[in-house]
Specification:
By secondary structure, this protein is of the alpha/beta class. Helices cover about 35% and strands about 20% of the residues. Helix 3 packs across helix 4 and helix 7 runs antiparallel to helix 8.
């Protein structure tokens, strides 16, 4: 029986990939890619000639059983997303779940994930955090934010540059304009940028300047004093 390898790929700089990931991408029988055009650039850079097959959210339900069958017959297969770790706001969960249900071994390699460097470099507490991924684009967006308004852990969101200003404005209204945040843009790329300030300042800044690229938005959790907690000093 073969094995499914979940392999992280660089979120920016192509050097951000492990030696084991490169070896396995050469050794497996097939690479499942979210976008074969994007993955082709990575494979070409490292002279990897393993066959590619498209595997994304629009076709994964139709493919998982056939892929599981190939794995059961002895083929080793790798799954990659456009950037980062498969399954983190990208396809990967359904295939992994199907393989486990069929008794097929799966292995996820450690590697690139955009929110980790964004969180660590944000300056907000990273001992406890809440990863929310992408907010709903329309229905349920405000409900989700409202449910997070009392969250004391650091909040992490992925956001489109086209919806960043809207997100900052909505968070300012729900969390309060003075809540601190950090917009991490183009992680590990040439124009990497970290912009820090309160939610209203950031909303005003990007309304005026505009924004491009991949975005990770880090928002501080609700502070203890905001929660109205009373501390009694014991002598």
């Amino acid at each position: 029986m073969g094995k499914l390898y979940l392999i992280p790929t660089p979120v920016g700089n192509l050097e951000d990939i492990t030696l084991r990931a490169l070896r396995l991408l050469k050794e497996v029988s097939l690479i499942l890619a979210e976008d074969t055009r994007t993955t082709s650039n990575l494979l070409k850079h490292y002279d990897i000639k393993t066959p590619l097959q498209s595997h994304h959210k629009f076709n994964e339900h139709q493919q998982v059983e056939k892929i599981a069958e190939r794995l059961a017959q002895g083929e080793d297969i790798a799954l990659v997303s456009d950037a980062g770790t498969p399954g983190i706001s990208d396809p990967g969960f359904l295939l992994t779940k199907t393989c486990i249900e069929h008794g097929i071994e799966t292995e996820c390699l450690p590697g690139a994930t955009a929110f980790v460097p964004a969180l660590v470099n944000s300056g907000f507490p990273c001992d406890r955090f809440c990863f929310e991924g992408f907010l709903p684009q329309k229905k349920g967006r405000l409900k989700r934010l409202t449910s997070l308004s009392e969250e004391s852990r650091t909040l992490i969101f992925y956001e489109s540059p086209y919806r960043l200003v809207k997100a900052l404005q909505q968070m300012s209204e729900i969390f309060g304009p003075d809540r601190q945040a950090c917009v991490a843009r183009e992680i590990s790329k040439v124009f990497e940028e970290f912009k820090r300030g309160n939610l209203q300042e950031l909303a005003d800044y990007y309304t005026e300047k505009g924004v491009k690229g991949e975005i990770v938005l880090i928002v501080e959790g609700k502070k203890k004093e905001e929660e109205g907690e009373v501390y009694i000093e014991v002598m």
